[in-house]
């Protein structure tokens, strides 16, 4: 029987690329009895925690995308009346969001009077529950479909913008 203070178990955790193994952590435990079981349970628990954390962080929950569409030809001095935009690109324009493979996720219509700001006239809309994808495209189209604009974003780019984009189009 080993005495108190005598190392009875040494654990080395490793990581590698399959062909070579590089030691990453070495721990020595000095225990009297049951040390091997306690250390074994601790290692199994740590592995289970890492595996469950990887599975949770690998799956993203749907996000909401906020979109501001502005009239690039407007200025801070414009009153942004709805009548100013009758029969223009913005009058009933359709805004759709597609994923990386082109599946349409949602569609919104530009309607009503825009809001005024120091950057000109703009409309806001939101796309809720946007599923995970390797990329997204925001499409703007007038009522007839003759004028179209597309803006493409990666999830990383949207993350840096807090999932809020501002696009400008000339009426």
Kindly list the characteristics that best describe this protein.
171 residues, 17% helix, four-stranded antiparallel beta sheet, four-stranded mixed beta sheet, disordered N terminus, alpha+beta, Immunoglobulin-like
Q: From the helix content, strand content and strand pairing, which structural class follows?
A: alpha+beta
Secondary structure: number of strands:
10
Order of helices and strands: EEHEEEEEEEHE
The residue ranges in which pLDDT falls below 50 over 5 or more consecutive positions are 1-58
> Sheet with the most strands?
4 strands, mixed
Give me the number of helical elements: 2
Distance between the termini: 87 Å
Number of domains: 2
CATH architecture of the largest domain: Sandwich
Oligomer: single chain
Would you write up a description of this structure?
With 171 residues, the protein is α+β, with helices and mostly antiparallel strands. It has 2 domains: 9-57, no CATH class; 63-169, Immunoglobulin-like. The chain is built from 2 helices and 10 strands. It has helices spanning 35-57, 155-160; strands spanning 9-16, 21-29, 63-71, 94-99, 104-109, 115-117, 120-130, 136-141, 148-153, 164-169. It is globular, with a radius of gyration of 29 Å.
Give a short synopsis of this structure.
The chain has 171 residues and is of the alpha+beta class. The protein contains 2 helices and 10 strands; from the N terminus they run E-E-H-E-E-E-E-E-E-E-H-E. It folds into 2 domains: 9-57, no CATH class; 63-169, Immunoglobulin-like, CATH 2.60.40.
